[in-house]
Amino acid sequence: MTVLRKQLEVDRPLEEVSAFVGDFANSAIWDPGVAEARALTEGPVRVGSRYELIVVFNGRRLPMTYEVVAYEPPHRVVLHGTGSTVRAVDEIAFEPTPTGTRIHYTADLRLRGLLRPFEPLLRGKFEETGRKAMDGMKAALATA
Predict the structure, then answer these.
(1) Helices and strands per DSSP (H, E), number in the chain
(2) 140 - beta bridge partners?
């Protein structure tokens, strides 16, 4: 198991940030590790909303399906992701700051199948992917 914990602050209002980041159809905009993202569920984000992502990891394009399992706008969203080689739980919390919003992002990643024993060896790659995602999120929110 690899657990990534990242935090950043942006100069955008809480409601805007939560709505943008909490809708995983936007993840391809801010996460360079996501080549494609689309909503599978119509309507606003809610518990049960589902997304299909094509994640790029180590040069491979991997399909994943994410589902919102907890949604407390504008403060928190939790998504479960499943792919052929990985399971993920992404928890994103938002809190107001005097100048904008603080984002707390936790990703619990577990490799599946034959790749599971290699998880410790890929920890650095997961950390790099998480850092790039947060950098991308900060850049996207600065221009949104």
Answers:
(1) 3, 7
(2) none
71 in Cβ contact with 46 (< 8 Å):
yes
The stretch 31-55 carries a mean pLDDT of: 97
Question: In this predicted structure, what is the pLDDT of residue 126?
Answer: 66
Locate 51 and state its tokens. 């997304």
- With a CB cutoff of 8 Å and minimum separation 6, the contacts of 27 are 34, 37, 51, 53
Radius of gyration of the chain (CA): 15
Residue pair 25/37 in contact (Cβ under 8 Å)? The answer is yes
**pTM beyond cutoff 0.85:** yes
Residues 6+ apart with CB under 8 A from 42: none
> Given the structure tokens 């159809």, which residue do they identify?
25
pLDDT of 43 higher than 70: yes
What's the pLDDT band for 94 if we cut at 50, 70, 90?
A: very high
Assigned token pair, 16: 């805007």
List the beta bridge partners of residue 86: 111
Residue 32: asked if its preceding bond is cis (omega within 30°), the reply is no
User: What pLDDT sits at residue 109?
Assistant: 84
